Structures are given as C-alpha cells and as structure tokens.
Fold this protein.
Amino acid sequence: MSLVHVTDLTVGFGDLRAVDGLSFRLEQGAALALVGESGSGKSTVASALLGLHRGTGARVGGSVEVAGVDVQRASDDELRRLRGAKAAMVFQDPLSSLDPYYAIGDQIAEVYRVHTRVSRRAARARAVEVLDRVGIPDAVRRSRSRPHEFSGGMRQRALIAMALACEPRLLIADEPTTALDVTVQAQILDLLHTLRQETGMGLLLVTHDVGVAAGSVDDVLVMRHGRAVERGPVAAVLGAPGQAYTRELLAAVPRVDAPRTPSPAPGEVVLEAKGLRREFGRGKRAFAAVDDVSLTVRRGETLGVVGESGSGKTTLGRMLVGLLEPTAGEVRHDGHARVGVDPAVQMVFQDPVSSLNPRRSVGESIADPLRARGERDEKRIRGRVRELLERVGLEGAHYDRYPHEFSGGQRQRVGIARALAADPRVIVCDEPVSALDVTTQAQVVALLGELQRELGLALVFVAHDLAVVRQVSDRVAVMRHGRIVEQGPADEVYDSPRDPYTRQLLAAVPALDPRIAARRRAERREVAVT
Amino acid sequence: MSEALVATEVPGAAVPGASGARQFWRRLRAQRAAMVAAVVVALLVLVALAAPLLTALEGQDPTTYHPSLIDSARGGVPIGSFGGVSGDHWLGVEPQTGRDLFARLVYGARVSLGVALAATAVQVFLGVVVGVAAALGNRWVDQLLSRVTDIIVAMPLMIMALALLAIVPGSFPRPVLVALIIGFVAWGTIGKIARAQTLTLKELDYVAAARLSGWGTLRIARRELLPGLAAPVITYAALMVPANIGIEASLSFLGVGVRPPTPSWGQMLTSADVWYQAAPQYLLLPAAALFVTVLALTVLGDGVRTALDPRAASRLRIGTGRRQESKADLSEAGNLDGDEPKVHEPETAREGTA
Amino acid sequence: MSGFTAFALRRAVSAVLTLLALSVIIYVVFYATPGNVAQITCGPRCSPEQVHQVAQQLRLDDPLYLRYWHFLQGIVAGHDYSTGTSVEHCPAPCLGLSYQSDQQVTRIILDKLPVSLSLVVGAMVLWLLLGVGTGVLSAWRRGRFTERALTGITLAGVATPVFVIGLVLMIVVCGQLELLPFPEYVPFADDPEQWMWGLLLPWVTLALGEAAYFARLTRASMLETLAEDHIRTFRAYGVGERSIVGRHALRGALAPIIALNANDFGSAVGGAVLVESLFGLPGIGQELVHAVTVIDLPVVVGMVLVIGFFVVLANAVADVLYAVADRRVVLA
C-alpha cells in the first residue's frame, strides 16, 4: 500500500481553484518533491494531506489517503491521530511556526504527549532526545529556551525535531529552507537527507527551488495552476524535461557555474566608496553593520554585492544612494564627496509591495523625479512617463493604474521606470528579484541588462543569491559581518575563490544536477569532519 | 453617516486613492450590522440637525417652564397619565419644571453628538500633530513629545475633566467647554497611534524612493505619510465618538458638564431615579437614547475598522515584530536605537467613561 | 535576568518623572488660570476682604514656581500653617488645607480612600474574571451561537454608560425586587459581611461595563493569536482545540490584556466616581465632585494628584508584568 495516495484532488477557495484534479502516489520510504512557482497550488496540496482545510471554508474534492487513513472521511479524532503521529509537517518560517511564549522542549513534549500516554517527565526526555538527534548542541539546556533565543537554522532544526518526536512514516516539508541563508539551507537539507536514510520515513518536499529538489528527492512533480505538468525521476525530469513549461522553468534558473558574457569595457569611475562604516545603536549595544568598506563602480559595469543575512549588504546599499549617512568614510560621486541623496544615484528596492505607495497611481510615482526637478508641463510629464513605462515593458496607458492592479514582476518594472525617470548614472538594486518567481526573475534581470547596455548605466546589484549575482555581475564583492572578504572579477571569484567563506558559500549552493548535488553533499560532509 | 466620518477626517490628509475608497465602501456595505448602525446614526444626525423643526412641529421648545402641568403638592410630579403625555407634549413633561420632554430629548441629541464630534476632532488634530511631529523630529523632540503623550495617557480623563471644569469661569459656553476639555485631555492614544504608524511608514521603501526623487520632508509628509495615517486614525476616531458621548453624558450626569437650561441626556438622568415611579419615561427615554446612540456608533466603528484593512490595524498592536524578523537584513535596516513602538490598538476607544 | 531588573528600574524612574511632570502640569493649570484665582477659590459670594485673605494664604504675590516649590516641599517634608491664632502642623505628605473646611487635604483623602479602594479593587477582580472568561468562551465557541450571543451581550454592555447600568440595577434590584438593600459603605473592619453586601451592587455596576470591554478585548486578541502561524503548527500536530485555545491562544492574548488593564484602570477610576455619586458612597470620587462644585482647589489638586499616583503606579506595574509576560520586549 502506498504511503500517500492522492486521487483527483481539487481544492477551491471561493472562486479560485488552487488545486485542480491532481493525482499522485508516494511509496513507503520514498521522497517526492512538488515543484512550482507561487500560485501553483503546491502548498495547498501539502495542507490537504493532513486535512488542514477542514473547517476553513475551502472546498475539497477527490480522495486523499495518507498512511492508511482516508483524510476526507476520517472523523476529527482519527484525523488528530494522523497528524503528527503518522505524518508530520515542517513549515517554511520556523520563527512564526513555534509558539513564542513556551520553551521549545515543552512544545515538543506537548505534541508528543498528545499521541502517547506518557508522563510529563518522559515527554520532556523525549524532546531532549529528538533535539539532540537533529544536532542541537547541549540539548538539555537549549530545550528550555524559547524560539526567539534560537537562530533561524536552529529553529528549523527544532521544528524538525518536533516532527520526529512521534516517529512518523511521512514527513511533509513545506518550503523548509526558504527563509534560511544558503549555508544554513545546505545544513538543513543534509539533515533531512540523513534522517531519511536512518529512519526510512517518506518525504514530501514542497519547494519553489528546483535546486533544493534536485539534491533531496527521488521523484519530482512539477505543478502549475493547480495541475501536474510533468512527473518522473528527478534526474530524468531535470536532465531531459519533456514539457515546454518545465524547460522554461529550468532555463530561467540562474546557474552559479555559468560564466557571463563580459560587458563592453567599463568607462570612468562614477561612484566610489572609501572606508565606509555605519554603526547602529548606542553605548553597549552599538555595533557596526558595515565596517571599512571601499569599492568603485564604473560606467557601464555591474558590481555584484553578495552576502547572507546580517552581512551588512543592505546597509551598504543605502549608504551608497545616500539614504543612510555613514558613521565614517565617504561616498564620492564623479570625484566629489557627496552628502544626502542625489537623483543621479537611484535605487530599485526589494519588496515590490512596499516600494510603491498604494494610494498613488503608478504614473504619479514615476513622475516624482520629474516634478521634483521642477518640470511643470503636464503634457511633457505624461509623455515621458509613458515612454518609461513602455521602455520597461509595460503599457503607456498604465499611468492611472494603482499598484495593487499589478503583479510583483510588473511592480518591479514600475520601480525601475521610476529610477530611470531621474536620468541616473548609477542604480543600486537591493535584492531586486528575491521576491519574484524564477521566470519573472529572469525577465527582470534581462531588462536590467538591456537598460544598462543602452544607457551605459553603472549597476550595483545587492543580493543573497550567488547564482543571480554571477549571472549579472562583472565584478563581485563578497560580504560577511559588515566587511568585504573578497572582491574581484566575477569569474575569478566564482571559479577560484580565495577566501574560505566564499568557498563555503559556493559549496552550499544547491545544484540542478542530482549527481553534482550528491557530490557537493559529500564534500560538505568532509569539510564538516575536518 | 458620512457626517461622522467627515468630521473625523485627518486634517490636511489627502483623500485615500479612489480604489481605496471604493474598496472601503464595498467592505462596509458587506456588513449588515454596520449598515443598520449607519442608518440609525444617520437618523440621529438628522434629528439633531432638524431639532428646531421637530419641536416647531410639536409646538414646544426645550426651555419653557410649564408650572401648570406639574403637581407641586406632590413634589412636582407631572399631572396626567404617563408623566403628562398629551397632544401638546408628545412624550410628557419633565418633573418639577414641566419643560417639554420631547423637545429636551431632540435638543439633547444635538448636544450629545455635537460635543462628541467636536471633541473627537480636537483629539484627532492634537494626536496627529503631536504623533507625526514626534515620529519625524529628532531624538530630543521625540523624547519630549512622547513623554508628554505618556503623561496625557496616564491622566485619568474623567478626573481631569471634572477638575478642569471647576476652574473655568461660568460665562464660557458650556458645551464648547466640555468638548474642548474632553479633546485636550484624551488625545494621548491617537498620538501614540499616529507616532507608531508614522514610524512604520517612514521606513517603507516608497518613502525612501520619494526621498531619492529629490522631494523635501514636508512634501513627503503630505503626499506619502499622511494618507497612510488616515486608515488607523479614522479607525480609532470612529470608536472615540461613542466614547466621547459617554464621557459627556457622565460629566453632565455628575452636574459638572452641560448645565441647565441647555438639555443633555446625561443631565436629565441626574434626578431620574427619584421620579421613575411617577414618570418612568423621564428615566427610560434619555437612557434609551444614550444606549441606542452609543451602540449604533460602536457597531459602526467596528464596521469601519473591519472595512479599513483589519491587518493594518493589527500591525499596530504591540510591535513584537514576529513577522518582520524573517525578512532578510532586518537587523541592519536601522531603527535599532529607538524603542519599539508599543501601541495598543484598542478594541473600543475608552479613556475614562464607563 | 539583569536586563529585566534594569528594565524594571528604568520603568520605576520614568514613573516618578511622569508623576513629577503631572504635578507640575496640574499645579500650573489650576493655579495659573486666567481670572482672579483668589476670587475663584473663595467663591463668587466672597467679600473683598475675604478674597484678600485668601490671596495671602495662597501666597499669590509669590511667583508661580515658588508656590509650586512650596507645594512640593509640603509633600516631601510637611508644612506649618498659621490659622490666625494657632499654628497647625501638616505632616508630610502635606497637600495643603481645604478652603471650605480648613481640614488637611491628606487627611480628607485618607478618610475616603478605603471606600474607593474597596470599590475599585473588588470590582476589578470581578471584571477580570467575568471579562476574560467571557472572552475565552466566545473565542473557543467562535462561529457558533454562543459566540454570537456573547458578542451581542458584551456590545450592549460596552454601549451602556455606567451610571445607566447603576440606575437600572438600583431601581430593579433594590427598588422593585428588593433583593438587596440600597448600597451603603460599612468599613471592612467593622463588619466584613455587611461590607460585602453593601458593596455588592456597586461592584457589579462598575464591573459590568468593564467586563464587557475586556471580553471584547480578550476575544479579539485571542482570535488574532488563533490566526497566527504557530497555531497552525499545533493543529497540524493533532493538538486538541481545548489546548490550542486555552493554552496557546490565551497565552498569546495575555500580554495585551495586562497592558490594557493598566490603561483601563484610569477609566475605571472615572467610573468609580460615577458609582460613588450614584450610590452615595463616601469615597474620593464623591468628595471630588463636591470639591469641584464648590471650587475647593487644594482638595481638587490633591485628589487629582493622588488618583494620578495610583494610575501611574498601575501603569508601571502593568508594564513590568507585561515584560514578564512577553520577554521579547525587554530583549528588543
């Protein structure tokens, strides 16, 4: 009997059909990845496996059988006995997925006691045991900590420990590493791999990241608009995709190992940072988010700034455009020291939602730099905005529309148009594509490249994603703890990294080829041992 | 109903985008209870506005004594059944004075709504000005204004209002005075909300983008910040109106608010318990009027809150930043030196009434 | 936990500063008002001689800051007053003398305080139990008839001014049904049972409105917690509804309840004034209304300060409790 048997599953919310006639099986001990972009319905499927839609008003059709339980027809009690005991779920954001008010050990113990009739003391002991199992050092003491006292990776380990507590036969992991840094992501994926080998439990991995799937599962099911597009062994689907959509998806995934066609010879230096330092906090709590960073950006070239969360890359970006004043050091622009903002240095922001005022039409937002410059002729303003909208691939008639009428990728285009309206010479892009789906991501990156060539812009591309940075950058700076640990031509940094941290980062990037993924895993294990 | 909203609109704020307003109306109309409440409030406002007309129809006014209609031998009980109900006096007359009850009731609506709306306007104005100034000012301005706000919040409203009413000369028009005092004593919570919301908005990328466009602080405050403030401020203000009605009624009940001959529902209840057997409507009518008014305004306020993006309202509540932390690089996003805004989005606006 | 001690200490200092600032504001507002302060304090029917005498007593010739300084001195160290022939000592904390009765304000307040404290503390126990209980119940039974019924009842409770509740209760319970005697205050030390019976109706009156308010708050706060991600986790692990509502959601809702209870303490004190006036309980509130009506400024100022003291104290305690309930506040 299959561990999971889904037949003709449909899930509807109001008018929306999130899942539309999906069927699949997962055998005992096997691993399957549901891969898809946002809105493909993959997470909805995960919730449906545990009957989490019950009582929420969602319409669920078809049949779902998990570990011998008919989820659709089971009584509330039967469903409760399934959840956590036979099939356990790990969620995306480990911080919000744990109760902030209770110790982690207590939360695991509570879940354990729901399914086993043991004493409080025995449940606590079990909690410590599983925490130790997932690699949390000093588990006895740490089990008394609350979630906010853990780091992101440790929290995800704790959530996995909770899942392990009752020795389930199926582990459902819903985007388990999306909120984590790349090095931590690798650790968590390795942990899941090891646990699967040791316990023989089945794994259903839900992810938007093809690379994450490649190294972690046997089979993959590509989803789009609530339907299955393609399925099969992971090596076959990723190596020789049979469907157009799969090919498109794979083509859009940036590769960390693909060299970039170099830009034409860069021109004169337009932006220069010298010994930048920025402190936050006062007194004992003061710390330097950016410390002694120097860099130059030339006309027509792209400087990639890559780093994990807390590396100071966002702070650096904000200082470069003048939104933040440095504590020490200076930003030089065309050879002059600069204070405050200058329209010639613009920024494209990370979050397509918060970067546009929801109460103003996109045309008005784009027109801001024109009006601020003193342009009063409404006709010329409209004309220029139309031109810019069309230049970034939108329609000129979109002037009077509001941000909520646009998708994430379109909003990011609006943001680019607004930056262009100021006739900038430098654009600092702060994680411009990290909130976008991979196909949209590729389009926005391509647009930036086009504009750069056309206008001779200098770009500073700040991102956490090593592959994207390689794809766009001529030169790369790797940041850690507020400092640049390595800086140089992109190919040099990626192909022969000198700094151990850069090497560690590169080893952690998920590979699209399952064989390479397995090799990297082995490498990481070696690095960990030595 | 639009009366109430217009009166509490943030001063100087731009009207939210067309789409936002449409969305607001759609969400509000979807709530049946809120719509019923809106109709009731609209009726009350109409009654208040048309008070002279209504009393003219009845042929009475709220201040004329009718000694002939009360039985002075029995301590001033109205003559006739049901407290002197007749064709001339639709709801009977007041014990002891014989003033027309209907006229006093409809003029009471004027006082009640007028004082509450005016007080709310003062509260919103002071709160928004102080809150925005604190959020946009430097560290010292913020410290000073925040401490002042704290003190205002800490002051027990009823007590302060009571005490302040004692020292102002009697010549000052009483309803205006009551509205001003309620307004000046109870703007603290709106100030806190405005400050917290401005701090949140200030950090948003679109404000940064406006700065990069080359706009100055004032223009950014007007175009980017104030419209974003409207939703939480209107939400809270909608709940302040019923609260202020309760405060005015309470002060007048204690005999220090609106004073005779100006009628007020609370004031009418001051001696009602003495007369409830002889003239039950003298107790029941003002009590019912107060109850219905406060209830309708509260339900409407709830509806307004639900319609104006409940998520935005809940974000204001106690900034533990649970969600934000997962966002990359939050630790470097600045704002580490300020204390987290700790604001309670109140279930009902209440500062001192009961 | 040293961070916590530091937090508590900081909060205490800020409470003292707030109180000091409050005293300045109150003093300035009341003694620097336009018009002849002496005339106002003495009353409209005072002869010019009396007004002059009051002005001297008030040291109206001194600048305001000096008078405030004397006032502070009185609070810290006490004062000696010469009342014509004899000298009366007013021990610290001295809040001055009443113009109406020449009594020491501190003594008047101390006389009335037990009544008001009995009323407010008793009612607070009642409204917290009733309000939080109702809120939890309606969050647990959400979407069902119980919740809708409770929502309606609490809405009515919020919409009824406390003195209307009191009036109706008094007329129905004491007048018509004669279930209880008309409320009166009997000191606890004299007869605990009589104390309780006498205060029962005032407690209920004050507590009903507050309870409705807290029920709404608790329900809203719990529903919000129930929508959070970690609740989904426990659902996905088969944890029962009872534990999810009673353990996780209530715990999450606790911090805002504590914080709001402090904020609301001030409004409850306001409600207590109404209840005291309505039922004729000889507490601070009734005395304050009296002092306001006869414009007895020292009594008004003293009482406002004492009430402010309690409210600031309640806020400080609640902040510390809040920090205990939600330790991330301290760590942030």
Notes: The radius of gyration of chain C is 24 Å.
